[in-house]
Write a structure and sequence with these properties.
597 residues, six-stranded mixed β-sheet, alpha/beta, 21% strand
Length: 597
């Protein structure tokens, strides 16, 4: 069932066109992840859908009776309200009484336990969690979430992930958490250069489809260039030759000449740069720290190696940021010492964006560190480095106050790396950074010639970056686990009784070593299906493309649009079934081939 349609939406800010004549359709049970580089209009798109902002042109149409719940990236509260009053703001008294227990349960899951505390006493992260509770408590058919995983620890993210997987309404959200996208969404919408690309897929499937699309576009552009060269050679033969040719041939040349070529997606490329690092790095001896009555760290020792990749995890308030601040000398330990080597140069990426003059130009903010930076690929100017971080020439000479939150975080990261540190302390680096920036940061860290200590709730990021985990617990004891975040989860779940459970695993391995099944083969119908399934899938994909074109043509006819959307949904369901069948048949074919050897 079609719940909402957005038709030919256009939106600009100043001279920048964020959205250009885009259309979008939301069906019941769609769970959509919105992705794209910071500043491309993702949050603006959600605001337009949620009716918090108006488009310059185009319209958004909702089905009758559809309610929308909206979580903005930066919620605004009435500071004099209590937490529960904020959650139930604008709700009836009877609704409050009926849902009091539900609200308190959700708040508890999000780490908020003092329900009568005023909003004034909350941190920015706590306010975001109260806003999440508010939007989840109030019933709606469409749930719109802008960066819901920011300021949540790993346990909270996992709880929210499971909650949204079971959510029966439609969902639209912006998040950089790729595991979250993989496990919750069934559609990905990519916003790029003012355009919208929709994929019926989770994040992993989207990557595969986009790669195929980009290859197709490149091949088409290569063909167009070849045609253009031929037409150019013809057109240059002179007026007399052109006069003997058809007018359509000249028009074809002009079309090829004036076309917009395929633009390469904006990509960050960055070479790892650092200053020389001596033998002694950072040594921590018998470190302890309390905050009020809470023991954050208890008698902790650590020798940081030059190639260390440490991920620090723990509940909100467990002392993760305090630990990094103690290394930086911004917070003092109660007992113990932190000894730092003479050659150590720390780059510290804090949760808070550095307090700088909003009227300072972007280029001057970087030039205040250095005019040039020496990389493994040569010397880069401040302007060139900013270009690598997706700051156009125009943006470089604009003021910092005109940047979005994500763009400011990207600029802050750019400045830190401009200093060529040899130790990186990263406190929640994934907050407000888009996925593409994260991918580049991950690649940079993989070749970084120094130690990295990172606090993060992003499980995907941790799995790609770290080699060991420091888990901060409520009693102040820090436990160390080798491996990435997924390895940590497996080891944490293990218990002493594991030794007793290993025998069946060995037995299972033995039983798999069985003689080959000489009778393994396709049935007659499977053999026929295997030969035809590639064409069946290709035909279904073509039908879906054709259906998209029909939907675009009938965007203003609501009843026809609903029928077409229903037909498209059926085609997509059939395609998914055929794809599952394709996997089964190919696996069977491989087993038959292996069995015959």
């Amino acid at each position: 069932m079609l719940l909402l349609s957005a038709e030919k939406i256009t939106k600009s800010y100043s001279n920048k066109k964020l959205l250009q004549d885009i259309s979008f359709y939301l069906n019941s049970e769609d769970k959509v992840g919105i992705i794209g580089i910071n500043g491309t209009g993702k949050s603006t798109f959600l605001k337009i859908i949620a009716d918090y902002e108006s488009p310059d042109s185009g319209k958004v149409t909702k089905s009758s009776g559809i309610r929308i719940g909206y979580l903005p990236q930066n919620p605004i509260f009435e500071e004099n309200l209590t937490i529960l009053e904020q959650v139930f703001k604008a709700c009836s008294q009877s609704f409050k009484e009926e849902n009091d227990y539900l609200a308190k349960t959700i708040l508890n899951k999000l780490g908020i336990t003092d329900f009568n505390s005023t909003v004034t006493n909350l941190s920015g992260g706590e306010k975001k969690r109260v806003a999440i509770a508010s939007v989840l408590v109030n019933p709606c058919e469409i749930l719109i979430l802008d960066e819901p995983t920011n300021h949540l620890d790993n346990e909270m993210v996992l709880w929210l992930e499971n909650y949204l997987r079971k959510y029966t309404g439609s969902l639209m959200m912006i998040t950089h958490d790729r595991y979250f996208l993989d496990r919750v969404t069934n559609k990905i919408v990519e916003i790029s250069n003012g355009n919208l690309f929709s994929y019926t897929a989770n994040y992993t499937q989207y990557l595969e489809i986009r790669a195929a699309r980009e290859q197709s576009e490149i091949a088409t552009e290569r063909k167009n260039k070849s045609l253009f060269r031929k037409e150019l050679a013809w057109i240059q033969r002179g007026p007399r030759a052109r006069g003997t040719k058809s007018k359509s041939r000249i028009e074809k040349f002009e079309t090829l000449r004036d076309r917009e070529g395929v633009e390469d997606g904006e990509k960050l490329t960055l070479s790892s740069v650092s200053t020389r690092l001596g033998r002694k790095i950072i040594e921590i001896n018998d470190l302890s720290k309390k905050y009020g009555d809470k023991q954050l760290i208890r008698h902790f020792d650590l020798v940081l190696l030059r190639d260390a990749r440490l991920g620090i995890i723990g509940k909100n308030g467990s002392g993760k940021s305090t630990f990094l601040k103690m290394i930086m000398g911004q917070s003092l330990p109660d007992t113990g010492t932190i000894s730092i080597g003479e050659t150590v140069k720390i780059g510290y990426f804090s949760q808070e964006v550095e307090n700088v003059s909003p009227s300072l130009r972007v280029i001057d903010y970087i030039k205040n560190v250095a005019e040039n930076i020496v990389t493994v690929d040569g010397i880069l100017t401040a302007s060139q480095l900013l270009e690598l971080f997706l700051f156009t020439a125009e943006q470089q000479y604009t003021t910092i106050e005109r940047l979005s939150g994500g763009e400011r975080r990207r600029l802050f990261l750019c400045r830190i790396l401009m200093e060529a540190p040899n130790i990186l302390l990263l406190d929640e680096p994934t907050n407000d950074l888009d996925i593409e920036a994260l991918v580049v940061l991950e690649d940079y860290l993989s070749s970084f010639n120094g130690a990295v200590v990172v606090v993060s709730h992003d499980r995907y990021f941790l799995d790609k970056v770290i080699h060991s985990v420091l888990e901060m617990n409520d009693d102040g004891v820090i436990k160390k686990y080798n491996g990435g975040y997924s390895d940590y989860l497996e080891k944490k779940d293990l218990d002493i009784s594991l030794v007793k459970t290993q025998a069946p695993v060995v037995e299972k391995i033995k039983t798999t070593n069985t003689p080959k099944n000489k009778n393994l083969k396709f049935s007659f119908h499977e053999q026929k299906e295997f030969k035809e399934i590639d064409k069946v899938i290709a035909d279904l994909e073509a039908d879906i493309t054709s259906m998209d074109e029909k939907i675009q043509k009938n965007a203003s006819n609501y009843s026809t649009l609903q029928q077409l959307m229903a037909e498209k949904e059926q085609l997509e369901t059939t395609l998914a079934e055929k794809m599952d069948r394709w996997v089964y048949l190919n696996d069977l074919a491989e087993k038959i081939e292996a069995n015959s050897l």
